[in-house]
Amino acid sequence: MSLLEDEETRSLNGSNNRVSFANDSEDEEDVFGDFDFAKLLVIANKSLVWVILLVVLSVTGAFLYVRYTKPVFESSSILKLDLKSEAGVLGLNKFNDENMPGNKLSTISGEIEFLKSRYLYEKIVDRMKMNVSYYAYGNILYEERYNNAPFKVIGEIKSPDFLDFKFDITFLDKDKFLLSYKKNDEELKSEHYFGEKISTENYSFTLYPTTFWSANETGAKYFFTMNSKEALVKNLMENVSVSILNLDANTILLSYKNHNYSKATDIVNTIDSVYLEQTLENKSKSHEQTIKFLEASLLKTEENLAKAERDLETFVRNNRTVDVKQDFGKNGIKLEELEKEKQLLRSRISMLGELKELIIGDKEINSFIPALTQVEDPQLSAAINSLNTLQEERNRLLNSQRENTLVVKTKNKSIERIKENILELIEINKKNSLPAIR
């Protein structure tokens, strides 16, 4: 009998010939008391090679993953929205309270769609001027040299085939470099000097050394690409994430992922800046429209007052009264009240006419919103606010979607239906006002 067989026999026929089964309900001390360490050592000795191999493969795999996988950096920013409505200035709180739960969610969702829109990303690309990207070759991977490349490229691409195209650069010495690239399975190489204009029918550019150049760069290999605007916008759309962080606090979480932490940080900061500028610009336009409306209303009121004074003077002259003060005391107050009522009715009819022109002309009615205080019909006021909300939602959709998409068409149908309702209400209000003027 061999030593191995003897060890196995002794492990199974040991003290009191006890054998443990997996389904025994013994306590923990009995289980460890029946555990045979000798048998464990024998089995481990038989599989020692596999154990060592498994450990080596695990450590090697972990090393390769850490060593040759690019780290991904995520930069994030929290945006807090100011949803304080300015409708209270014109007495429209009940029609446009953005702090109501439904309106708040709708407003924040609209801001998220704007942050995801192509319109905003194009402005970010124009602001950051990322038309050229620089990369350094490593032993296996390559690394983007964002804002720290030892050279810069100034020029243009004449052929679309060379946009987002890789140009290899090898530094020969402090003044000279080798330019190479592959096109149609053919590798083209040429030597050039820094500051020399390299021009072909497909491209034209010049390379200059930067402050990051050093003598250690001699023999180093880089490549650069002259990016298309479409590729840069696509990268932002794929890697920018926008979500609601806290609905009650009106906060939005904005994040961007990239292999270069500096680039990720700069892009998030630029998105914050551009978004803030656009928000302020939109608010400024809204304020300007409100001011223009108030100025126009004030001018019309002054004209009406001047006309009322002239009418009053004409009335006094036509009646040839001796005691003007006495007649004015008797009839002036009544005449003034009647004239005010007529002016108010004329103003309302004129306002309804302007509203009808805006509806028929398929124009935006946001400039009409401040005049809603003159509308006594609550049904018409609510319909106008609903139309304004639908038009704003459609404008946000058109920033990110085409006009022939289903969601835009559905929004247009809703707008047409409410326009028909508003036109009917306008005619009803006009009919009710005209007899009083006559």
- Stretches where pLDDT is under 50 for at least 5 consecutive residues are 1-26
N-to-C span: 129 Å
Main-sheet strand order equals 3-2-10-5-6-7
Q: Can you count the helices?
A: 11
- Please provide the ordered H/E string of secondary-structure elements: HHHHEHHEEEEEEEEEHEEHHHH
Q: How many runs of DSSP E, i.e. beta strands?
A: 12
Rg over C-alpha atoms, rounded to the nearest angstrom:
39 Å
Helix-residue proportion: 40-55%
Q: What is the number of domains?
A: 3
Shape: elongated
Please state the average pLDDT score: 78
Q: Approximately how much beta-strand content do the residues carry?
A: 15-25%
User: Biggest sheet, open or closed, and with what strands and sense?
Assistant: 6 strands, antiparallel
> Which structural class is indicated by helix and strand composition?
alpha+beta
Walk me through this protein's architecture.
By secondary structure, this protein is α+β, with helices and mostly antiparallel strands. It folds into 3 domains: 3-67, no CATH class; 75-281, no CATH class; 335-437. The protein has 11 helices and 12 strands. It has a 6-stranded antiparallel sheet, with no helix packed on it. A 3-stranded antiparallel sheet has the order 1-12-11. It has a 3-stranded antiparallel sheet with strand order 4-9-8, with no helix packed on it. The protein is elongated, with a radius of gyration of 39 Å. Residues 1-26 have low confidence and may be disordered.
